[in-house]
Amino acid sequence: MNTKLYIKDLEEIKLDDYKNVWVIAEQRDGEILTNVYELLNEGRKLADDLKVELVALLIGNNIKDQAEDLIFHGADKVILLDNPVFENYTTDAYTEATSQMIEKYKPEIVLVGATTIGRDLGPRVAARVNAGLTADCTSLEIDDETRELKQTRPAFGGNLMATIITPNHRPQMATVRPGVFLKALEDKSKKGEILEENVEISEEDLRTKVINVVKETKQKVDLPSAQVIVAGGRGLGNSDNFKIIEELADAADGVVGASRAAVDAGWITSDHQVGQTGTSVRPVLYIACGISGAIQHLAGMQESDCIVAINKNADAPIMKVADYAIVGDLFQVVPMLIELFNNEKAKKE
Amino acid sequence: MAGKDGDRMKIVVSIKQVPDTTEVRIDPKTNTLIRDNVPSIINPDDMNAIEAALQLKDKNPGSEVTLVCMGPTQADVALREGLAMGADRAILITDRAFGGSDTWATSNVIATVIQELDYDVVFCGRQAIDGDTAQVGPQIAERLDIPQVTYISNIEQKSEDTFVVQRKTEDGYFEVEVKTPCLFTCIKELNTPRYPHMRGIMEAFEDDDNVERWTNDKLNIPAEMIGLRSSPTRVKRTFVPEQKKAGIVIPDANEEEVKKVFEDLKLKHYI
Ligand SMILES: Cc1cc2nc3c(=O)[nH]c(=O)nc-3n(C[C@H](O)[C@H](O)[C@H](O)COP(=O)(O)OP(=O)(O)OC[C@H]3O[C@@H](n4cnc5c(N)ncnc54)[C@H](O)[C@@H]3O)c2cc1C
Ligand SMILES: Nc1ncnc2c1ncn2[C@@H]1O[C@H](COP(=O)(O)O)[C@@H](O)[C@H]1O
């Protein structure tokens, strides 16, 4: 190839050489991320449809004891890379390790969580192994005839959905949006195989150095696993008023969510943001207060089992997706709900 | 590369022109995207990338900021807006042969251009709002064989060739040290993009030659690395997401009606 770029020669790919479904088992501080269980659940279905094995790739330092957990959640095999060089995530070490394993084992599908780290690793690996990568998928399906992976994802801010295939390249790689799929259930009787692997990488090979890992949020806002979310938007008017959202969330044993407008205004921190650029959620109950329901917000909460919207404007887009569209002033309606929830709680105690 | 000219740095910013997706609407009759009259803008994160580059130039006088943009002829407007903000040079990468490129192919093209330029630091946006992939930045870095730090929310220059940046994670940030040459992808928390001043706008838009046009005649990228046919991914189908059916409307909320909703929620076990 006549190029100065860092790229391998492009050879004809024999699709049949590639087999099995992989899940990249992202961990932080030695703990497997929740979305990995979502990937295992979805990956299991794909592997069963294809009649192949589900394999988890686990990279880290001192993480051997997590391998079994992945098997209990559906993996047939775990490829384990346990080495001090993987203590913190670095693009160089993780890309090299993942790429080498892909080249050795040749999986047909590789699923990566669309986390801030998965979206750093995924594209870099896909470029190195010359694979197609579909970003931030919200639905995955096997085509019965072609065995191709149909990857569906939102585009244009959620206005349009696109189904993407990777016909002539392998592996078919996808990053998958956290919070969209259900988690795999644990089955402690499930058996599987753990393959310990090694790659030659040393600290000196790493071109970035992690000096510090800082946790900012004192208490992690766990939107993805919340059963009830009470979310506030620009309709609240100021940060002081936002307190009634917290009060309602407390009364309903829920978690506080927010629109981007509320976050941008500085009324609440960005870890509460729901939507396209925030967190995707599917609680049992979503109460939207003073939120217009812009497409980017809807993209992250439409899957909720029940949506209650409180808005002065009967024509706001959120009212079209709400199961209960309450037209009214949130400053009157929210206090009523707080009281109802509190009474209900008192009755139970 | 860094050091050669003292503190002078060669900075490249890769920017994309995108439709303003907040203005995109769906035609309810045909269920297709209405793209007419939708304004084109510089991708929001890329504005932060330009600002980061200009701030770096401010701190290292004599540095040069070059903007590159791959897209159709009209995308030259985005480059002129960037020039008006203070960039020194602008290159439009445009060729029929590049059409339909996915991120793999797009990054092959942009990386080839950046390789032709002398560079110390490359800035990209985190992601473009039309495709939202966040893949092109890391894939350019891979093709250039340089380190990347994505999602940067703070940047500090420690020495001529060393940076310490904060890269955001879900629950905090990593503090990362990296040496040039390197690539950063920027998020909106990094800075507030400056406004172009009047004179800058006039100058940028008056002179036709302000924007260089690079085609594949110049770049000679092999056909198997570019365009629709070489892209690993294919769009099989697009469709408009299904809207949920309308629910119960409470037209004028009072205490009694809110209570009814609450009881209904209980009955259906949502509470
Ligand atoms: C690339 C991109 C990504 C984005 N990502 C996200 C995202 O992840 N999440 C997100 O939320 N947004 C996102 N947005 C922003 C989104 O487009 C909207 O701007 C935002 O969601 C609006 O927030 P809001 O509904 O709170 O405010 P507004 O749209 O201003 O709505 C306020 C609503 O409150 C109602 N109201 C006012 N006063 C009262 C009252 N007293 N009682 C009852 N109702 C009242 C009004 O009728 C109105 O409907 C994104 C935008 C872009 C361009
Ligand atoms: N056609 C393009 N021309 C120039 N830069 C681009 C182009 N596409 C993507 N980029 C850069 O890559 C970033 C990520 O884009 P994307 O991967 O499309 O989400 C953008 O913010 C730009 O910095």
Give the SSE layout:
The complex is a heterodimer of chains A (349) and B (271).
Chain A: E1 21-24, E2 27-28, E3 31-32, H1 34-50, E4 54-60, H2 67-72, E5 77-82, H3 91-105, E6 109-113, H4 118-128, E7 132-137, E8 139-142, E9 149-155, E10 160-165, E11 172-176, E12 193-196, E13 208-215, E14 228-232, H5 243-251, E15 255-258, H6 260-264, E16 285-289, H7 295-298, E17 306-311, H8 318-321, E18 324-327, H9 330-348
Parallel strand pairs in A: 1-4, 1-6, 4-5, 5-12, 6-11, 7-11, 14-15, 14-16, 16-17, 17-18
Antiparallel strand pairs in A: 2-3, 8-9, 9-10
Chain B: E1 10-14, E2 17-19, E3 25-27, E4 32-34, E5 40-42, H1 44-59, E6 64-70, H2 76-85, E7 89-93, H3 103-116, E8 121-125, H4 136-144, E9 148-159, E10 162-169, E11 172-179, E12 182-186, H5 198-206, E13 211-214, H6 216-219, H7 227-230, E14 234-239, E15 248-250, H8 255-267
Parallel strand pairs in B: 1-6, 1-8, 6-7, 7-13, 8-12, 9-12
Antiparallel strand pairs in B: 2-5, 3-4, 9-10, 10-11
Bound molecules: flavin-adenine dinucleotide and adenosine monophosphate.
Adenosine monophosphate (AMP) binds next to helix 1, strand 6, helix 3, strand 8 and helix 4 of chain B.
